[in-house]
Design a protein that fits this description.
single chain; 8 strands; globular; alpha/beta; about 35% helix; Nucleotidyltransferase, domain 5; about 300 residues; three-stranded antiparallel beta sheet
Length: about 300
């Protein structure tokens, strides 16, 4: 839909709440306590089960839980974020919604980022390039496995012929066998073909059900030729962090920014912004709620 259609569909709180209800209960109301399927709406916007009288909020257990702001503002925020081609900043969101507090805009943005990844997403498959890189720090540094105060990030790129498919990005503790094998098993389907360098951290991954092609580093005339698809993603990621966030990304929040980049990159060919809005909102209804304090003190692992 266009933005004009968006504003008409979500012109009131009643329309917003009804839309969220349909997302949460696509097959009709089901009481979370007794599984009865009939309810009525109380004045306090709780759906009361006709059998056990349990009251259910449509926003409970979602990123909107306990919000004091209108749902319309939340939906505008999600629409704006999905329509930003190169990413969204807290300062930009603050201006769009007219929020008095930068802290509120920052919290909303990070809450919405938590909805950019769902546990049920499908793993990468087929032929997948895998490598690691360092992100952050004051200097460019090297792509190797020792770079001072930078953060080590594992990168997996699905190959669709000669084209790039989907990607996965995750902070890892180190480049050990335990860390790299864990990243691969969590993000790539067993039976896939892995393309890696000859780093010892990848040794034995064949025993986990993967085939592996080892890239001969001696044949690479430049860094661009060393696992070129991973290198391209890393270059685009660093450019995105620098351009959208001026590189001002705290280490403890880096995974949230990686998740946003993955969400955007994997949907880069979608021409329908309304569909991206729907998918993100759909995720927001099944992702556990969080608070500003949790975001600050207990960011994503």
């Amino acid at each position: 839909m266009t933005f004009n259609q968006f504003t008409l569909q979500f012109a009131s709180e009643v329309q917003c709440r009804k839309y969220l209800f349909e997302l949460r209960f696509p097959d009709g109301f089901v009481c979370p306590k007794c599984s009865h399927n009939e309810s009525w709406l109380r004045r306090n916007n709780l759906y009361e089960c006709k059998k056990c009288k349990h009251g259910t909020s449509v926003t409970a257990g979602t990123i909107f839980q306990d919000t004091r702001k209108p749902l319309k503002d939340w939906l505008v925020a999600i629409w704006w974020i999905t329509t930003q081609k190169y990413g969204a900043s807290a300062e930009g969101l603050q201006q769009v919604l007219g929020l008095k507090s930068y802290e509120t805009a920052w919290t909303w943005l990070h809450k919405i980022r938590t909805a950019m990844v769902v546990p049920t997403r499908s793993k990468l498959s087929g032929t997948v390039e895998v490598d690691e890189t360092f992100i952050g720090g004051e200097s460019a540094g090297k792509r190797g496995r020792g770079a001072g105060n930078k953060t080590l990030v594992a990168v997996a790129v699905e190959l669709d012929g000669k084209r790039l498919g989907r990607v996965r990005l995750s902070i890892i503790k180190d480049a050990s066998k335990q860390s790299l094998h864990g990243f691969i098993k969590e993000n790539i389907e067993a039976g896939s073909k892995l393309v890696t360098d000859d780093w010892t951290g990848y040794f034995g991954i064949e025993d986990e059900g993967y085939s592996r092609e080892i890239y001969n580093q001696s044949k690479a005339e430049s860094e661009d030729e060393l696992l070129p698809h991973v290198h391209l993603i890393v270059s685009l990621l660093k450019r995105w962090l620098l351009g959208t966030h001026q590189g001002a990304v705290e280490k403890k929040h880096l995974q949230s920014y990686l998740n946003e980049y993955v969400f955007r990159f994997n949907r880069r060919t979608s021409s329908k912004r309304g569909l991206l809005f729907y998918r993100l909102l759909e995720n927001a209804m099944v992702v556990s709620p969080t608070t500003y304090r949790n975001l600050v003190e207990k960011p994503l692992p």
